[in-house]
Amino acid sequence: MVSLYLRGPNLSGFGDALPVIRLSVPFRQALSRLSFPLMLAASLGTVLIGRADPNVSDRVRAGIDDLLAPLYHAVSGPIQAAEHGTGAIGHLFALSQENAQLREQNAELLQWQEVAMALQAQNNALKASLNYVPSPTPQFSTGEVAADLGGVYARSVLVLVPPANGDTQSLVGAVAMDGRGVAGRVVEAGERSARVLLITDINSRIPVALGASGAPALMAGNNGPDPSLLYWAPGQPPAEGAMVLTSAQGGAFPPGLPVGVVHYDAQNNPVVLPLASLDALRLLRLFSYPDNLPELTPIPHTKPASKPEPKPAAKAHSRKR
Amino acid sequence: MVQGPALRRPLTLWRRLDTASRWAFPGFMLVLGLVVIGMPFDLPNQAALRPVYAMACVYFWSLYRPASLPTPLVALCGVLLDLLGLSPLGLWAVILLLLQLATIAARRRLAPSRFIVTWGAFTGFAIIAAGLAWAAQSLLELRLLPAAPVLWEGLFAAGLYPLLARLLIRAHRTAAAVELA
User: Fold this and answer.
1) In angstroms, what CA-CA distances link A272 with A40, A194, A249, A258, A259?
2) How far apart are CA A154 and CA B101, in angstroms?
């Protein structure tokens, strides 16, 4: 038996281990020699297929995500509860402290509410005198984040969504926001789950408007925690602490969604500190904006050949209003 | 250990089932591990763990029990790794197959050598494979990807192999031992 196991590589898988399948010896040898080059060729073919048609891998991935998302969700519940500080068990130790803190915050927020109501009334009056046409209200669905593993070179999360009833592609391109700001955009959707590409992913490019003037720039993910800012107007460097909002350039995002705050890092490069807490996402709202925005950025599933990489400087002249 | 008469025992249904389950054990554990590592445990750099686990399994079983992890299964696991780990489809299938080829080629030297040698060889293989994955993915996406994950994968490979090998050696002698069926 030992000599049998040391007899040399038997890669075919049809060897002595499975006594059920009986094959002639030369055929078996031929199979074991051929199986490696055959499989290597098949794998290289898979790479080519994946390059030629990204939809294939997207669809298979969405199917697998649909299968695994409920499983991941079932596991992540107890883990989140046990987490120190944020989970249910962590809260038990600091109840009275937190209560006092919440009371203070509540009083402060009530003051802010009065300010907000006054501003709302003023805003309504101004809009009425300007004959303002309101922007269309988006439809949204709320989903729990089931897993946030992503890949070695990718930052994405898996969100459990209500059943799509066959229309799985309606969610693709939806803007994902947590309580405070934009977290990313849906790139794949299945029956029960959707994959959100985070704004920190190296493939994420989002046209943004900076500060009160709305100066255009491009926010590019770099797989790190803070996405960098590119292509801002020369002579107008982004100001430290300026608010970063989405811009409608390219048509992928509606204007004015909060993204983050400008900050200069140690190398003196401007980066965006995201408002959304991207490393502890629990709930995401997926906003499907109506299609009356200018279609300059193709959604991946409709036009797979071109990549959504809008460059504001180049696209500024072709903006439709 | 190996009972001689066992080979001459009649092939009953139960014995066939036993053999088949032992034969399928490594592949099953490989796929199960890939799924389990995907669960959100909030570990730092958890995504880099998945390719390392796959590489460790392919390396170990190709070294000590090649028949249990046939090439089609390795290729399928590679595709699964690509689907779960968001890398270009088929990339890790090619890399895992190359790792298996390299392991089988070095098998006569590595299998009888001491543990520290196989450990070092695996770390080397894993760093080369991770570097290859980084280069191939950079080439396919036409951009220079950050190289830090290669370092992480190398560290994970060096750190995890002794733990994993301990479990796998146990399995090799019990649950995956086809000759004991």
Assistant:
1) 43, 25, 18, 11, 8
2) 28
Please state, as a whole number, how many other Cβ atoms lie within 10 Å of the Cβ of residue A250.
Answer: 23
pLDDT of B8: 64
N-terminal to C-terminal alpha carbon distance within chain A: 78
Q: Percentage of residues in chain A with pLDDT exceeding 70?
A: 79
- In chain A, the residue whose alpha carbon lies closest to the alpha carbon of B134 is A153
Q: How far apart are CA A238 and CA A228, in angstroms?
A: 11
Q: Are the CB atoms for B178 and B17 separated by under 8 Å? A: no
Convert the pLDDT of each residue in B136-161 to its tens digit: 999 988 888 888 899 999 999 999 99
Residue A121 phi, psi (nearest 5): -60, -45
Dihedral, A195, A82, A226, B147 alpha carbons, nearest 10: -80
Given a contact cutoff of 8 angstroms between Cβ atoms, the answer to whether A226 and A259 are in contact is no
Length of chain B: 181
pTM: 0.79
Say if the Cβ atoms of B35 and A71 lie within 8 Å.
yes
Cα distance from B93 to chain A (closest Cα, Å)?
A: 6
Of A160, A154, A150, which Cα lies nearest the Cα of A286? A160
- The neighbouring-strand residues paired with A216 are A209
Of residues B11, B90, B143, nearest to A43 (C-beta): B90
d(CA A236, CA A257): 22
> Are residues B38 and A43, on separate chains, in Cβ contact within 8 Å?
no
With contact defined as beta carbons under 8 Å apart, do B86 and A150 qualify? yes
What is the dihedral angle through the alpha carbons of A112, A117, A119, A123, rounded to the nearest 10 degrees?
Answer: 150
DSSP state of A154: B
Two structure tokens written together for A132? 């303002």
Q: What is the pLDDT of residues A77-105, one digit of tens each?
A: 777 777 655 556 666 777 888 899 999 99
Pick from A305, A64, A50, A228: nearest CA to B136: A50
